[in-house]
């Protein structure tokens, strides 16, 4: 059986592995955990989904919800929501899909169901070819030989990693936005009946109470995302300045005297909704001329979880079709 390396354990890489037939696959993941931008931070009595928050039930990708249900990774909840708090939009009850025990249940349960060996805390820094075989290198180890390598990682990192094997000058660069996220714990309720929504202020583009997803918490935990233009302007802001700014804004808006008992922030990259590779040149992934090296990610399709899933699903299908049409078994 051919040997396959998959770099990354984000949703696009997991989707690819899920949709390929059973193979001799090994994952390589730079972090100590699977999931990439699907990340849940646990802090004593608090829990924060501080990358992706939820999936819309009407995401439109066939089989995605069912695959997540099969590995018991999700549940459906209803929350009181507004599309624009700052602009005075009305409140409505909205159904959403969330992780069963934090958004991290999605990658953890999917990864477990695949049962493929995984090298965690292993950042792949170089890919080399020797005859028909490929080898991967971290800072201290060499892995291989592999017949095929798939990198499910952000575009620019992939373009650097695979630059000796693929001519990236022929592709436009899908755009990523930067987003500061702020996790806050409070000693009591903030006094709003809203659970989540957009534009709490002109600058706080998204907010979500974590308690309504995880009822067991005694303390109030919230996640706030800053607008990408604001994030660019304050790209190097000191975390404590950012966190205090958000605490003050939130207390002012909800007229609350709650005390922030936990503060943490993280800066992420978010694929731009209108500048995916598909938008820019019609392709949804990148492959080497010999069809043995591939680069994929949400950036091939769009900005959300369903796009990452679709990216893996489409690539698996075209790899299978390519190999069938060339009368090889992968
Ligand atoms: C703040 C924020 C909020 C979001 N909110 C939502 C939401 O509410 N709903 C929604 O649907 N989507 C949301 N998204 C988008 C969603 O999180 C992403 O679309 C999806 O998780 C991307 O998956 P991916 O596999 O393409 O990339 P990633 O999740 O980035 O996965 C890449 C993986 O590769 C690993 N890696 C990278 N380089 C290497 C290397 N050299 N060697 C080894 N491993 C490597 C990384 O550690 C990571 O695990 C949000 C994103 C952000 C940032």
Please give a structural write-up:
By secondary structure, the chain is of the alpha/beta class. It has two domains: 3-36 and 107-173 and 273-325, FAD/NAD(P)-binding domain, CATH 3.50.50; 40-103 and 175-271, Polyamine Oxidase, Chain A, domain 2 (Alpha-Beta Complex), CATH 3.90.660. It is 24% helix and 31% strand. The strands form four sheets. It has a seven-stranded mixed sheet with strand order 6-5-13-14-15-12-16, with helices on both faces. Helix 1 runs parallel beside helix 3 (105-114) and helix 1 runs parallel beside helix 8. The longest helix is centred in the C-terminal third of the chain and has 21 residues, at 305-325. The mean pLDDT is 94. The structure holds flavin-adenine dinucleotide (FAD). Flavin-adenine dinucleotide (FAD) is lined by residues 7-13, 28-31, 36-38, 51-55, 123-124, 152-154, 157, 161, 179, 181, 225, 268, 270, 297-298, 303-305, 307-308.
């Amino acid at each position: 059986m051919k040997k396959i390396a998959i770099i990354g354990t984000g949703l696009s890489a997991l989707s690819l592995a899920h949709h390929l037939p059973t193979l001799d696959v090994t994952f390589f993941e730079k972090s100590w955990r699977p999931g990439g931008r699907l990340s849940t931070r646990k802090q004593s009595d608090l829990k924060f989904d501080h990358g992706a928050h939820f999936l819309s039930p009407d995401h439109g990708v066939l089989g995605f919800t069912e695959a997540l249900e099969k590995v018991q990774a999700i549940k459906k909840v209803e929350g009181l929501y507004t599309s624009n708090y700052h602009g005075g939009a009305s409140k409505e009850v909205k159904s959403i899909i969330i992780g069963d025990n934090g958004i991290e249940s999605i990658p953890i349960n999917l990864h477990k169901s695949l049962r493929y060996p995984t090298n965690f805390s292993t950042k792949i820094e170089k890919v080399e070819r020797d005859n028909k075989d490929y080898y991967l290198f971290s800072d201290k180890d060499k892995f291989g030989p592999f017949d095929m390598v798939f990198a499910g990682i952000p575009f620019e990192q992939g373009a650097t990693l695979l630059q000796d094997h693929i001519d990236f000058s022929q592709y436009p660069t899908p755009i990523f936005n930067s987003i500061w996220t702020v996790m806050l714990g409070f000693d009591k309720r903030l006094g709003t009946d809203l659970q989540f929504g957009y534009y709490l202020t002109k600058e706080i583009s998204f907010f979500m109470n974590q308690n309504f997803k995880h009822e067991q918490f005694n303390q109030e935990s919230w996640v706030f995302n800053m607008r990408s233009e604001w994030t660019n302007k304050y790209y190097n802001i000191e975390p404590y300045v950012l966190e205090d700014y958000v605490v003050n804004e939130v207390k002012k808006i909800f007229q609350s005297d709650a005390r922030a008992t936990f503060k943490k922030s993280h800066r992420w990259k978010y694929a731009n909704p209108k500048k995916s590779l598909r938008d820019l040149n019609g392709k949804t992934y990148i492959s080497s001329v010999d069809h043995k090296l591939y680069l994929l990610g949400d950036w091939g399709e769009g900005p959300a979880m369903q796009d990452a899933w679709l990216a893996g699903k489409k690539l698996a299908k075209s790899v299978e079709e390519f190999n069938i049409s060339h009368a090889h078994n992968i």
